[in-house]
Amino acid sequence: MIETKPNEIYCVKGGVGIGFFVGRPQLKAVDLETCQKEIIETRSSLKKEIKN
Fold first, then answer.
1. Which residue in 2, 10, 31, 49 has the most C-beta neighbors within 10 A?
2. What residues contact residue 43 under an 8 Å CB cut-off, 6+ apart?
3. Per-position DSSP letters for 4-44, written without gaps between them
4. Is the pTM of this model over 0.85?
5. H/E element holding 1?
6. Which residues have a Cβ under 8 Å from the Cβ of 39 and sit 6 or more positions away?
7. Organism's domain of life (predicted)?
């Protein structure tokens, strides 16, 4: 569980783990600096894919 407070910004990183029949969501809180860095990296990689 991720504890939250009103009027605060939170970043959550998600993935899919292996389950018996279906994948299981894996969520974890990340700090704002890491969040912003990974968003920029994702946008950059998407732009590269669109050009190709």
1. 10
2. none
3. --TT---EEEEEEE--SSS-EEEEEEE-HHHHHHHHHHHHH
4. no
5. none
6. none
7. Bacteria
